Amino acid sequence: MRARLVVLSAVILALLSPLPAMAQAPGSTKVVLRNPDVAKWAGRNNFLSTSASEFTCRPLACPAPSKVTAKISASPTRSPDRQALAKYASQTIPAAVEQANLNVASSLAPGRKIERLSSTATEIRGYPSISQEMRFVGGQEPVYMSKVTMFVKSALVDIASYSPSRETARRNRDLFVGAMQVEDVPIRQ
Fold first, then answer.
1. Which residues does UniProt assign to the signal peptide (predicted)?
2. Residues 110-135: pLDDT tens digits?
3. Would you state the CATH architecture of domain 25-184?
4. CB 66 within 8 A of CB 162
């Protein structure tokens, strides 16, 4: 009886002990979005996914109410074409905003509008990116969104910051972009 208890305990301990770190496969990218300041930001992950997070600025910790959302998914390519990104930023995003405004106008909540302030292809932290800023009007006060979509090797990272202040939205986005950790294993040639 005692021997069974010892064996059972050993099996349980073996199952509960941390597993050794698995090596990343060549060509894979591990991106971790960390909370840059846990005293200032309350964060949570999407219940069904570890690749989506939402952070809300705690009361009185930011100059204006603020929220940052982050999503990591598979990138369609490790090296996007810069001209294709520029075309996407200058043509596809404005067309999508126009379509969204048409949809809102015909919805049950007319009077709301999305204004595109900017959308450009750029490079952030050395990675090809699309940066965009929008203003949502029609509520009590306008809300600004400052968003960056980064092609981080084999990962596609979206970080969007929302605030009634355009400058605060931009600053919060940059704070979370700076807190991002990247570990890339290059493809063997």
1. 1-23
2. 678 899 999 999 999 999 999 999 99
3. 3-Layer(aba) Sandwich (3.40)
4. yes
pTM over 0.85: no
pLDDT of residue 6 exceeding 60, the answer is no
- The 3 state secondary structure assigned to 69-104 is EEEEEECCCCCCCHHHHHHHHHHHHHHHHHHHHHHH
User: Residue 43 is which amino acid?
Assistant: G
Give domain limits for the chain. 25-184
Strand ranges (E), the chain? 29-33, 41-45, 52-57, 67-74, 113-124, 127-137, 143-152, 155-163, 180-184
Which helix (H) or strand (E) element contains residue 173? helix 166-179
> First and final CA of the chain: distance in angstroms?
57
Angle (nearest 5°) at CA 176 between 101 and 52:
65
